[in-house]
Write a structure and sequence with these properties.
Layout: E1 9-16, E2 19-25, H1 33-37, H2 60-63, H3 65-77, H4 80-90, H5 97-108, H6 120-138
Antiparallel strand pairs: 1-2
């Protein structure tokens, strides 16, 4: 199986009854002949990687660290293994997502997990805690 590779720039996205229509602008020199010859309606398996100005793939987790931390905090607070980790390492009993979220806010000295988006000090502490949790889970 031969793959078709080219660079494209997202120029549009709209929704129709069939789904989302993604529009890419492709430089004429980059447009593969095989793609041009395929009929409208041809199906493709698509793999895309966003690239930066240095032509290297972008890591989305590093692009929006605050958003990622808020999402990760929500996920760990729902995880019963995280509750066990808190009990095992901190000595605090947690038995629900609500209790876990409350414990995390006290531990990080924040009012809400949403603060992880803008509070870099709390975010760094959360990342350390998450790494400890991942290590604990691996054992």
């Amino acid at each position: 199986m031969e793959t078709i590779q080219f660079e494209g720039v997202k120029t549009g996205l709209r929704q129709s009854k069939e789904g989302y229509n993604l529009t890419l602008a492709v430089h004429p020199d980059d447009l593969p002949d095989d793609l041009m010859r395929d009929f409208v309606g041809s199906r493709y398996m698509v793999v895309m990687v966003r690239i930066g100005d240095d032509e290297q793939p972008l890591n989305r987790e590093h692009e929006f660290p605050g958003d990622n931390a808020v999402k990760m905090a929500g996920m760990v607070c729902r995880d019963p293994e995280f509750w066990a980790f808190i009990a095992d390492t901190q000595g605090d009993e947690v038995s629900s997502e609500t209790e876990s979220a409350q414990w995390l806010c006290v531990f990080l000295d924040i009012e809400s997990r949403k603060e992880l988006k803008t509070n870099s000090e709390a975010r760094e502490l959360f990342i350390k805690l998450k790494k400890g949790f991942d290590k604990w889970k691996a054992n």
